[in-house]
């Protein structure tokens, strides 16, 4: 017969578990926002014509573009104001993760600028003309998002 020993966890162990759970929650939110954003990006990039004016295709394109812009900003915010903020504010205690995040952050910040510029240009409700440069702008944004996702995944792997 074996006797299991149950020891109480220390306050430090409890705080560490809470921090890990908080990190997991932040990562899950980031990945959920990213997944929704990528789905909308693919839908938007797959449109044959964006159209302008009041026809139903143009209206659909504008609505999709507005939804994409909203989700894009939510995704960017999920990363910046949760995951990266912990590192920038010094609340990440694991030095290896802090060092990696500091190394990756400038490149991630560049992708944030591109995403926000895209949003500024195209988030104009349903009463705007879709620019002829949307396809090129989507392509540039897609390249930046791909680079960002690769860096985020590297950071997420280290968080686990």
UniProtKB/TrEMBL annotation:
<protein>
    <submittedName>
        <fullName>Regulator of sigma D</fullName>
    </submittedName>
</protein>
<dbReference type="GO" id="GO:0006355">
    <property type="term" value="P:regulation of DNA-templated transcription"/>
</dbReference>
<keyword id="KW-0804">Transcription</keyword>
<dbReference type="InterPro" id="IPR007448">
    <property type="entry name" value="Sigma70_reg_Rsd_AlgQ"/>
</dbReference>
<feature type="region of interest" description="Disordered">
    <location>
        <begin position="1"/>
        <end position="22"/>
    </location>
</feature>
<keyword id="KW-0805">Transcription regulation</keyword>
<dbReference type="InterPro" id="IPR038309">
    <property type="entry name" value="Rsd/AlgQ_sf"/>
</dbReference>
<dbReference type="Pfam" id="PF04353">
    <property type="entry name" value="Rsd_AlgQ"/>
</dbReference>
<comment type="similarity">
    <text>Belongs to the Rsd/AlgQ family.</text>
</comment>
């Amino acid at each position: 017969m074996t006797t299991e020993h149950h020891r109480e966890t220390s306050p430090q162990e409890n705080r560490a578990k809470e921090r890990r759970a908080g990190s997991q929650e932040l990562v899950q939110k980031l990945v959920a926002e990213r997944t929704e954003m990528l789905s909308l990006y693919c839908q938007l990039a797959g449109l044959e014509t964006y159209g302008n004016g009041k026809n139903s295709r143009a209206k659909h394109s504008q609505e999709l573009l507005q939804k994409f812009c909203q989700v894009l900003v939510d995704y960017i915010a999920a990363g910046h104001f949760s995951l990266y903020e912990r590192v920038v504010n010094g609340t990440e205690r694991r030095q290896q993760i802090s060092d990696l995040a500091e190394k990756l952050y400038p490149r991630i910040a560049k992708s944030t600028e591109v995403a926000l510029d895209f949003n500024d240009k195209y988030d104009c409700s349903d009463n705007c003309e879709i620019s002829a440069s949307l396809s090129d702008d989507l392509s540039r944004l897609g390249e930046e998002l791909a680079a960002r996702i690769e860096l985020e995944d590297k950071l997420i792997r280290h968080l686990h």
